[in-house]
């Protein structure tokens, strides 16, 4: 049994002063075979603690159906940290932000539009309790008070940036403690009055999140919490990327300088991130602070001390040099980078058109009006809406109200245009005398993970109308809807076909591997879509950048024959990809 607690302005462990030098590594962004490697590199840098969020949506993807295996095996991750004698800070759901889909909240919460989020509403709290009834018993044996590595637990995340329902925070605190959590409880917020006033509660240690000016940030914290340990729960030493924007980096010398200043103040620090990893599958989040939707890329490299592939960077060694002034690291070797390999060019010679494959992918549901994904029990991926419109109709604008997030419109099987949530676009169509079938393929590009717009339903969330140049503004009814979550492609039938048909389709190829190593999938020439390796969803790609290659960890590859499948939304002239040794970032 270990006791970790505060004693005036310091942390003590079993009666001895201790300073936490922590780094964030999210188990759900790293394949399990690499957990030990990443944690070992954290320790070799001079750190004594690892911090991780716990995303609710990963562990309860459908109401009452829980998942704690594979990449979701949080218990195994924490036990791996214990093998390396690392302390663990956990920051569990309900909400985590983390540039993660819906901030970690499960999409099924949105099926009931009357339930408010992140407050003391009874229906929301009932869902949280059901989740805690499963999660907390898994964590309890791992507490330091029970001989495990967990020394602290966060009760919510940056709540003062969202709301002021202190009864909600108190409820979460009491829910955790009554289930047997007896380690130090913490909150984390921005170092501002508005955030700290609504994010801190009695009996819970407040910490602050920032990327610079630690003197001002800690001074503000001390106004609200004097004579307590100083801790930066999120030291933003890098940042994340949005599609269509530039890759963001932070200079290593500046990162190390701010870190050193915090250490000279006697503070404890948690690097966010120490190793970012990858937003595999459809788990990337999105931002919408000012009404402009910005989806986050697949890579979560974050310009962190360990890059996306887990290799030490210049920032890693700059931080290690700072720490060497406070602890002796001369005899601690730095683990080697992982082996990389370029497997070369692979031709994707087989194709399965999306529209031909619909009966193998989903069942059609009839609705009078379009409905969003959540109303149909769908979480991620794509959704297809189809209706027949009589003709003739000339010079009509197709209006899709509140499209979430990107729609490709087809008229009688021909692409008529693309409508995007973040870019006002007028789409004019004409209906021939015999009428036409309108199909609208909508992509969920990631639910908003932070701020006032997190209640982010997906698909068509309003009406679809045809507006003529005159006075007519006609609602379209009678829809067939197909959910396309893309979580099972095993029934697809591939054929050798003409790849010049520029329509949504699946492309398949195979390649040989004699020695598995990390590699990077280059998608030059492809438009936008999703990549799968041996059935594993690597994530999204998009020609707008900044990310142009997807990280492929070696454990996803098989000795001998490997399969790659791309679902591309707009088609490709030359159906081939190339595997390289290096990333496209930086």
Description:
This is Beta-galactosidase. This protein folds into 3 domains: 4-323, Glycosidases (TIM Barrel, Alpha-Beta Barrel), CATH 3.20.20; 344-352 and 489-580, Sandwich (Jelly Rolls), CATH 2.60.120; 369-477, Jelly Rolls (Sandwich). 18% of the residues lie in helices and 30% in strands. The longest helix has 18 residues, at 122-139. Helix 8 runs parallel beside helix 9. Strand 12 and strand 13 form a beta hairpin. The chain is built from 10 helices and 34 strands. The protein has an 8-stranded parallel beta barrel, surrounded by 5 helices. A 6-stranded antiparallel β-sheet has the order 16-27-17-23-20-21, with helices on one face. The chain has a 5-stranded antiparallel β-sheet with strand order 15-28-33-30-31. The protein has 586 residues and is α+β, with helices and mostly antiparallel strands.
Helix content range: 10-25%
> Which fold name is given in CATH as the topology of the largest domain?
TIM Barrel
Q: Which residues sit in consecutive blocks of at least 5 with pLDDT less than 50?
A: none
**Structural Rg:** 25 Å
Cross-sheet strand order for the largest sheet: 4-5-6-7-8-9-10-11
How many helices? The count is 10
Which shape, going by the Cα principal axes? globular
| Number of E strands | 34
Summed up, the domain count is 3
CATH class designation of the largest domain = Alpha Beta
**What is the residue-mean pLDDT, rounded to a whole number?**
96
Percent of sequence in beta strands = 25-35%
Largest sheet: 8 strands, parallel, barrel
The CATH H-level superfamily of the largest domain is: Glycosidases
Structural class: alpha+beta
Termini separation:
45 Å
| CATH 2nd-level architecture of the largest domain | Alpha-Beta Barrel
């Amino acid at each position: 049994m270990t006791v970790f607690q505060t004693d005036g302005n310091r942390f003590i462990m079993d009666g001895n002063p201790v300073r936490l030098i922590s780094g964030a590594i999210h188990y759900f962004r790293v394949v399990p075979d690499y957990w030990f490697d990443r944690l070992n590199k954290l320790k070799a840098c001079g750190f004594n603690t690892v911090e991780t969020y716990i995303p609710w949506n990963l562990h309860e993807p459908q109401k009452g159906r829980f998942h704690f295996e594979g990449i979701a095996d949080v218990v195994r991750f924490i036990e791996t940290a214990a093998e390396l004698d690392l302390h663990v800070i956990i920051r569990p759901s309900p909400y985590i932000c983390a540039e993660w889909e819906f901030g970690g909240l499960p999409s099924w919460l949105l099926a009931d539009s009357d339930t408010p989020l992140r407050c003391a509403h009874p229906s929301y709290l009932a869902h949280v309790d059901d989740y805690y009834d499963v999660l907390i018993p898994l964590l309890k044996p791992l507490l330091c008070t029970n001989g495990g590595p967990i020394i602290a637990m966060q009760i919510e995340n940056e709540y003062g940036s969202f709301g002021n329902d202190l009864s909600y925070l108190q409820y979460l605190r009491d829910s955790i403690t009554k289930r047997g959590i007896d380690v130090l409880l913490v909150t984390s917020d921005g170092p501002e009055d508005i955030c700290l006033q609504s994010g801190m509660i009695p009996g819970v240690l407040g910490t602050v999140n920032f990327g610079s000016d630690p003197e001002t940030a800690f001074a503000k914290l001390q106004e609200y919490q004097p004579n307590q340990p100083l801790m930066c729960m999120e030291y933003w030493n890098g940042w994340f990327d949005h599609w269509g924007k530039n890759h963001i980096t932070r200079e290593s010398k500046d990162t190390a300088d701010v870190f050193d200043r915090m250490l000279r103040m006697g503070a404890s620090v948690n690097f966010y991130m120490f190793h970012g990893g990858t937003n595999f599958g459809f788990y990337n989040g999105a931002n919408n602070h000012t009404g402009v939707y910005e989806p986050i890329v697949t890579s979560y490299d974050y310009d962190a001390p360990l890059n996306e592939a887990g290799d030490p960077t210049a920032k890693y060694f700059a931080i290690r040099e700072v720490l060497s002034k406070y602890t002796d690291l001369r005899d601690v070797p730095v683990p080697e980078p992982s082996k990389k390999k370029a497997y070369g060019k692979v031709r994707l010679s087989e194709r399965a058109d999306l529209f031909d494959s619909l009966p193998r992918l989903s069942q059609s549901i009839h609705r009078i009006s379009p409905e969003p994904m959540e109303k149909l029990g769908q979480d991620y991926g794509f959704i297809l809406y189809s209706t027949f419109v009589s003709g003739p109709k000339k010079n009509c604008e197709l209006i899709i109200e509140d499209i979430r997030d990107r729609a490709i419109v087809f008229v009688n099987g021909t692409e008529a245009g693309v409508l995007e949530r973040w870019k006002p676009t007028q789409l004019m169509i004409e209906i021939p005398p015999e009428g036409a079938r309108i199909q609208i393929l909508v992509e969920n590009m990631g639910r908003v993970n932070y701020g006032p717009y997190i209640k982010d339903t997906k698909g068509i969330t309003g009406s679809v109308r045809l507006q003529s140049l005159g006075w007519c503004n006609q609602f379209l009814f009678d829809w067939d809807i197909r959910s396309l979550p893309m979580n099972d492609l095993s029934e697809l039938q591939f054929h050798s076909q003409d790849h010049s048909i520029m329509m949504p389709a699946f492309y398949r190829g195979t390649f040989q591997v004699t020695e598995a190593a990390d590699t990077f999938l280059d998608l030059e020439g492809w438009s936008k879509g999703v990549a799968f390796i041996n059935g594993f969803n690597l994530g999204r790609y998009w020609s707008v950048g900044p990310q142009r290659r997807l990280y492929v960890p070696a454990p996803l590859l098989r000795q001998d024959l490997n399969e790659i499948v791309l679902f591309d939304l707009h088609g490709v002239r030359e159906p081939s990809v190339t595997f390289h040794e290096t990333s496209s970032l930086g």
